[in-house]
Every structure is written in structure tokens, then in C-alpha cells.
Amino acid sequence: xxxxxxxxxxxxxxxxxxxxxxxxxxxxxxxxxxxxVLKLKYPxxxxxxxxxxxxxxxxxxVFTGYRVRHDDTRGPTKGGIRYHPGVTLxxxxxxAFWMTFKCAVVGIPYGGGKGGIVVxxxxxxxxxxxxxxxxxxxxxxxFIGPETDVPAPDMYTNAxxxxxxxxEYSKIERRRVPSVITGKPIPLGGSLGRDDATGRGAYxxxxxxxxxxxxxxxxxxxxxxxxGNAGQHFAxxxxxxxxxxxxxxxxxxxxFREEGFDxxxxxxxxxxxxxxxxxYCNGSVCETVDAEKITNEELLELDVxxxxxxxxxxxxxxxxxxxxKAPVIVEVANGPVTFDADxxxxxxxxxxxxxxxxxxxxxxxxxxxxxxxxxxxxxAEEEVQTRLQKIISREFRSIMxxxxxxxxxxxxAAYAHALxxxxxxxxxxxxxxxxxxxxH
Length: 440
Ligand code: GLU
What we know:
By secondary structure, this protein is α/β, with parallel strands linked by helices.
């Protein structure tokens, strides 16, 4: 039986099946046994739980949650927990699959995992959110652990939630276990530099490209879709470097301004005034600046130099890939470009810096946090950033070299690069080639 003949065949499992398709393409450019590809087409373990939560008014609600461990050949599975009303099992499986590749791309000793709860956290009070988070850990405690599966924040979860989860797990274990989860608040064992690590990793990718293309940041116009943790920090670092951020958006829509925005002011408006507004602030005094209102769809199609999708998956599909004008797309979000859209972007010569590299800064600093928790010794922020930059730059260059040598797109090169690392670990346990030869 060959790997190709056994693609997972559940037609409703859309996002996961789409994610898996990228394996076959990458396989041709990696140096591993086909069996590794077969193994990676299936998640190792899938858990679905129901979480009863007592509401503030005394009533009871039951939420559905998932935790998926995709592959642990290279180490404990690692990946965030997402709170979103649109969470599905297929999505969590795809996200866990991407984590396996992300950890391998940056060479950290983890496999991939992911979790999610089907919930709109904006509809819960903070106390309800705490009960839900602790309830989820109660249900998945046997599935996770510092040496088995290590969660972290993802969409609409944050450091405080990670702190509650660590505390709940520690109560169950009857000992303090900070390394069971990363992205914790600093006083509870979090790492300096974890908060901005996802955006920072993407920014380091751009710095590499800047050198290659001899860019002057002031000439480069950037559009950022999504203004959550990753999008904000990416925009802030780019802006501080002189890049012109001409458009940003959140789930309610976007703003465009040819001269560029003052990003710290937009961050202030979004986080303190709870609305993304075109403003310039001096301290807490903000005045409106001229800007055009645009939709999220329009933002993606702007004539800019760099497009950074930093929101949800499936934003660039066959519907709009033709209309994308930015020559460089940096995937700050997970999975913003669909499998079919990749082909169109390749034909029109766009450079896509793929999610598994572009947003790997988050999990890399999560790994640093885990190391610090286990050692009981904490690093300065500068050390975290220096180590992160070293890893991202090193892997960016290896992937670019492979891309050029094989004349393939950057995503395929990143997957092939990761697949070689995962495949070597799988092969080290023996494949049919080894067993049929009786080990000779
Ligand atoms: N949720 C983040 C991601 O998608 C971080 C995962 C982690 O730190 O384990 O990469």
C-alpha cells in the first residue's frame, strides 16, 4: 500500500483534508520514506469533551471542546487553545497538523497539537470564562502534561486564561506544574517576550527579505488584516522600523490611509477604546485623522507591497486570489491561503512567506518558556529576542535556499524542510524498508 493511495477520505473533513494535501507536494522535494507521509495524514489522538458551566444567573450551559494531538515523533505535542464560535473538529485537526510542521520548521523538539472550544467568549462574563477554562482542563487533564501535550494561547485566549489553566492542572496533580502550559502571565512563570513573539517572528522574516531585496522600509507600503495580538505586534514593529502601514482591519472592517497610520495610536484605540479607529493620540488624547473605510475583502486586494493576513484561515481562496496585488504575502495567521489559491498566487509570481515559518515565533518562545519552567531559571527579554531571531533567520535562509535550488514556491520548500526533519525521526524508528531488509 502506498501513501498516495490512502489519503484520508472523509469528504466533510474539509480544512483538514486541504491541509494534508500539501504533504504530497512537499514529499517530492524531501528526502524521506513515503511511510512518513502516510503516518502524518492521520492525527494520533482526538478528544471531544462537553464542559458544563454554571452561568452567573444560575442557569447551566454546556460547551463543546476539542483537543487533538497530531504527531509526537519529535517530542511532546504543542499548540494553542482557541475560543471561537466557529471552531470545528476538522479545523482543530488542521491546526494541530500545522503545528507539527511549524515545530519542525524551526527545529524545536515538539510535535503538533491544538485545542478549541465552540464559544463566543464575548458573550461570557469574566467569571464564566474562568469557570469554562478550568472546566476544560478538568476534562482534558489526562490528555495533556509537560511531557505529553502542552497547550498555549490562540485566538481569543490570553495569558490570564493560561494562568487559570495552569492553576487548575496543578490542583488536579496536587503539585505546581508550570510547564504544562505556555503563554502564562510573567509572575506565574511566563516568559518575557512571549507576548509579542508571533508578530516578532513574522517581522524577522521581513527583515531577512529586506536584506535580499535591498528595501528601504520608508518606501514599502503594508496592509494588515486582523488587529489581535499577532497583527498588532507585527504592525508595531514594522512601523517602528519605518514601514508604512497604510491599512489595518479587525472583524468589523478596516481603514486605509495613503500616508500610513501611527500604529501605537491605533493600538491604543483598539485596546482602550475597544474600537479600531483612524486616530492620532498623544497620551490618552486622540484626534481623528483622515482615512477611508474599507472592508476586509477590499483590504486584501489593495495595491500594497506587503500583505499580512493576521486573522482567520481561508481568507485568500480561488474567489479572490486573482485580485491580490501585493507581491509579498506574509501569513501571520494560520492557514489564510487555501490550497487551490496557492497555485494562482504562484502563477502570478507572488511570494508567500508561509504560516508555518512566518508565525512560528509564538511557539518558539513557548518552547523557551517551557525550558525556563523546567530549569527554574528565567531569561532576560533581550536573550529571548536574540535567540528567536537566530532561529527564524537561520530557517528562513535554509528554506529560501531550498526554494531556489528546487525552483519551488516557499510554502512547498518550508514543508519539505520540515518533512525531512519529521521523516528522519520516523525513519529512526524503522520503516518497511528497514524491516524488510531484516535490519541490514
Ligand atoms: N497558538 C500559537 C500558534 O498557532 C502558539 C502555539 C504555542 O505557543 O504552543 O502557533
